[in-house]
Amino acid sequence: MRRPLCLLVFSLLPLLAPSPAPAQGVPDIAVERRMAAELGLQVGDTLRLGVAPDSLDRLVRVAAIYEPAADPATVLRRELRLRMHLPDLAAMLGQPDRVDRFGVALEPGASADSAARALNQAAFGYRAYPSSRIASESSQTFRVVSRFHRAIAVITIVASAIFLLCIMLLKVEERRMDAAVMRFVGIRRRTIFLALLLEAAVVAVLGSVLGVVIAWASSAATNLYYQRFFDTKLVFSLLTPDIVRFSVLLSLVLGLAAGALAAWRLVRTKPMVLWGRG
Amino acid sequence: MEFRWGVRNLRRHPFRTALSIAGIAVASAMLLDMVMLRGGLEASFADLLLVRGYQIRVTPKGTLPLDSEATLPDATGLVATIRSDPGVAGVAPLVATSIYGRRVAGGDSLVTLFGYGIDPRDQGLYQLLRGADLAADDSAGVLLSEASATALGAAIGDTVTLLGVLDPQMAAPAMERRLVVRGVVQWLYDYREQPSVGTVVPLMQRLARTEREDRVSVLLVKAKSDADVEPVVERLRTRLGGAEVNGVADLVRHFQDRMVYFRQLATILGSVSLLVTVLLIGTLLTITVNERLGEIATLRAIGVSRASIVKEVLVEGTALTVVGCALGVALGLVTARYLDEILTSFPGLPATFSFFVPRTPNVVTAILVTLLTGALAGLYPAWLAARAPIAPTLRAEAT
Predict the structure, then answer these.
(1) pLDDT tens digits, one per residue of A63-119
(2) Does B21 share its domain with B160?
(3) Could you list the residue range(s) of the whole structural domain that residue A130 is in?
(4) Do the interacting molecules here have an ipTM over 0.85?
(5) Of A58, A203, A242, B244, which is least packed with CB atoms within 10 Å of its CB?
(6) Out of B16, B61, B171, whose CB is closest to A53?
(7) Distance from B211 to chain A by nearest Cα, in Å?
């Protein structure tokens, strides 16, 4: 049975200590930067590894410290990882000549699906998958998160739309007296409606611009916080031009619709009622 | 009087009031969902761990239960050591491994299965749905889940073939056993449609080729009482140096670390919901008060006290919040079910797990926080109304 690498990592924790100069023939390992930082490791240090805390019988030398590729699938697990040469790891596990998986490179033009099918027809004890299928399977988690984010976004948009409508309504209602005076001096309803709509448009544009600035700042703050929190270079919040376009367009449409509705209600009201004497 | 007066003012502008209530309802729904998400994750996980009453898990050093393929050697010795603790009421060994099965209908293709090795006398892993449980020494029987019964095309009483580790070089399985299906069970920690089968521990160890070292994946430990859990955990940590010993509280803490994203998201969105509620109520009442300054000044002029004016404005804010909040709770419970359906489709998550748990304390917390926020949001407009100068306001109103 496959022993996980994390077990090896945890196993060496209790026995980490400054060590004498490495002996000849000591296997080399590479340690990821976060692990080196947490354990105070440097290139040239010697460690003992084992598959269990009471059998730390393998001496290894830190030959390199590496920065792993940012992987969203593992960022929450915060495991410490190291890399060994395959024969060294297999020997330590007591399972020589066994592997978890193979990566197979195909000749240019060869179909991955066909190759996997051919391998599976002759398979016993293994299963071949095209890389695209593995990528699709392993991205399931992120698809679920993405669906959740979309659902939250819909709720947020509904809340924002109601909020916007409410504010626009109140904003236009503030102009009751102005609208009444304009009606008394003979200005047409259409002109008043357009004036109120223009005001709503200006408010919507200014609000959208401010919203983009706030979104940009909060996106940057989110990335800064989580990148430090998880010690990773992953991007957690992505503000793309498409998202900005969609949000601004939605705000403008909602703002104008809310302004139009409020203005329409106002111009339909009799001037004396607007004046408070009706 | 202030109550009737406040409600009448709200009814003067039905459209405006309806919009405000709708806004507060959506904000309250979001707040309730986020409170449920934040507390529900931990509550659901703890419930899941405690469903059969086992409060402690013993796993290989540096690992969490079934989080890796690491195993503990000398299971018999470990079980005996743990049972000898005076605070321990029971120990359930568990082997978890990948095995294969052959369909009852025949054919060459194999079905990949999750194999559990259990001790039927002491187990915290399944609930019997149909048929019979395994006997303690039943090495000829097997328990299936609904999913594995479907995958194997087997029913209770059928004989199925299970195969252990496959050797590609020999083109043969390490071990092959024909077993009679005794019952169909629900494996408590399985994800949806997980094809799992269970046998007694020694048989599953043979299928996994770990019988020589007597390896198990996890030991579930039941303390005699909840008060015994912490002392037992401490004693076992001392006695079992090569193993990881965690109580449910420890496991919940590990889980919280993994789910930190959802907890923080819940906090942020919950705070935004509260802010929206404050802004909505505050803005609405401020504009309403400004519109009615003349009326308020008149009331003050005929002897209505400032306190009554303040109470009336606060009543308006509270009435809006109460109605909006009531609608928000209903809306929140509906949206929580929808959001839960999305999140529980995470691959590998136990089917019985929930992200949004509608517990009474969560609902009460969300309601109280919303009501308090709504009442506070009315403070500024109430202050504006109370300090309105009587004479200048009446003069301005008359011109």
Answers:
(1) 999 988 877 777 777 778 899 999 888 888 887 777 888 889 999 999 999 999 888
(2) no
(3) 104-138
(4) no
(5) A242
(6) B61
(7) 12
